[in-house]
Design goal:
13 helices, 2 domains, seven-stranded mixed sheet, 22 strands, globular, alpha/beta, Rossmann fold, Metallo-beta-lactamase, Chain A, 467 residues
Length: 467
């Protein structure tokens, strides 16, 4: 067998790995967008390190765009195989990929409009369009958690809940080679235990080979129990004491629902100040509706909570906003408010407009609640920039920048070690660290070695290994 690293190698986002079996059968794991500002990845989303027509099937870990975002292009470019994933992942991916296509169409339209004014060729085209997003959904096949699904005579796949987002899973491929069975695993993005809404990550069974994410391989986060108290403290300081707006850039899937649920509980306990809360993201609204369709992914805590509050994603002062006109009104509204909007890295979407209108207001707060890829506006603000450029304007950063990593959907170093702790070190022949920046991977590699793991590799983009 051979493994080739076609994305998220020594960087985060763009997850994509190609496994080729001895008989030539090819399995692609994830096909994600690169999201970030590194110049060497400028053309990543447009190109493949393989021929899509030659891929036999694909398995998808979850519906975040950095894992599924290029699937419409994959199908458009000739892939005809099945795409295996969980039921919730399929539902979320349908929404996410359609939204991604619409963003690309809109961005191409405005780019060409600006080019026309400058007398330049109007040759910007989307990587894929909405029709491509619709077409690719015909390739999806849903598989339940912990069910062994036969792909062909030699290969079966199973998905196990890894607690990252709704429907997310680790992947185990069982591959028959003669009388022997090889187990090849991919952790996907490992979630955090004891998070609200979702079940805790479920450890994988023993493996021969493993691809392991390493996003926070060098970091340990604050305990999850601090979330509610810390968020309430920031709300009070910003909205009550200063009378300002609290802007929360949040991914539409997972992070937004977790924040809403946390606010819902605070409101029910009588702790949340009587201020308006807006979820300004049509996709987040759609994602929340999908959450309600998949209670099989919920943990016991929210299931019990729903016995007394049937809607954990709604309360008196919470308003969901779909219309663009209503979103624009938030930028000129007076008084305190909490605005939750996408994208989480502030790379696009309505949150960028809210940040543009509030970043020079010293009474406002921008709360970063998750990972931001290098080069994104979220990362720039997180790293303490004093000036930023938004919509071709240079702005001073006068708003307070806060960070709550405990809201992250990624397990930290200790939590990832715990996730891997049950694996048989003697059976595991190779462990490849993916989906992480190199500095984090080197730290994580050293930590794993101390925990008895060996033959740990940190592959480069386009690097291949014979297994």
């Amino acid at each position: 067998m051979k493994i080739k690293f076609c994305g998220a190698a020594q960087t985060i986002t763009g997850s994509c790995y190609l496994l080729t079996l001895d008989d030539g059968y090819t399995i692609l794991m994830d096909a994600g967008f690169y999201q970030g500002g590194k110049k060497e990845f400028n053309d990543f989303n447009k190109l493949w390190l393989f021929n899509p027509r030659e891929i036999d099937c694909m398995v998808l870990s979850h519906a975040h765009i950095d894992h599924c975002g290029r699937i419409p292009k994959l199908v458009k470019d000739g892939f005809k195989g099945n795409i295996f994933c969980t039921s919730a992942t399929r539902d979320l991916a349908a929404m996410m990929l359609m939204d991604s296509a619409k963003i690309q169409e809109r961005d191409a339209y405005y780019s060409n409009k600006r080019r026309k004014k400058r007398g330049e060729p109007q040759d910007v085209v989307p990587i894929y369009i909405t029709q491509d997003a619709e077409n690719c959904m015909q390739n999806f096949i849903s598989v339940g958690y912990d069910k062994l699904h036969r792909i062909n005579d030699k290969v079966s796949v199973s998905f196990r809940d890894n607690g990252h987002i709704l429907g997310s899973a680790s992947i185990t491929l069982r591959i028959k080679i003669g009388s022997e069975e090889i187990r090849f695993g991919f952790t996907g993005d490992i979630g955090k235990p004891q998070r609200p809404i979702l079940k805790d990550p479920n450890a994988m069974d023993d493996l021969d080979f493993l691809l392991c994410e390493s996003t926070y391989g060098g970091r340990v986060h604050k305990k999850i129990s601090d979330n509610s108290r810390n968020l309430l403290d920031i709300v009070n300081k910003t909205c009550v004491i200063k009378g300002g707006k609290l802007l929360i850039p949040a991914f539409s899937v997972g992070r937004t629902q977790e924040i809403i649920y946390t606010l819902d509980r605070l409101e029910k306990e009588g702790k949340l100040p009587k201020i308006p809360v807006y979820v300004d993201s049509p996709m987040a609204i759609n994602a929340t509706d999908i959450f309600k369709l998949h209670p099989e992914c919920f943990d016991d805590e929210i299931s019990k909570y729903m016995l007394t509050d049937p809607n954990p994603f709604g309360f008196a002062n919470l308003k969901y906003i779909r219309k663009v006109e209503d979103s624009k009104k938030l930028n000129t509204s007076k008084g305190p408010a909490i605005i939750i909007s996408a994208s989480g890295m502030i790379t696009a979407g309505r949150i960028r407009h809210h940040v543009f209108h509030n970043i020079e207001n010293e009474n406002a707060t921008i709360l970063i609640v998750g990972y931001c890829a290098p080069g994104t506006l979220g990362a720039i603000l997180r790293n303490g920039a004093k000036r930023v450029r938004i919509f071709r304007k240079n702005l001073s950063v006068r708003a307070k920048i806060e960070v709550l990593d405990s809201f992250s959907a990624h397990g930290d170093q200790a939590e990832m070690v715990e996730f891997l702790s049950n694996l048989n070190r003697e059976r595991l022949k190779s462990l490849f660290l993916v989906h992480g920046e190199k500095d984090q991977q080197e730290i994580f590699k050293s930590v794993l070695e101390k925990h008895g793991f060996s033959n740990i590799k940190v592959p480069k983009l386009n690097e291949g290994f014979v297994l």
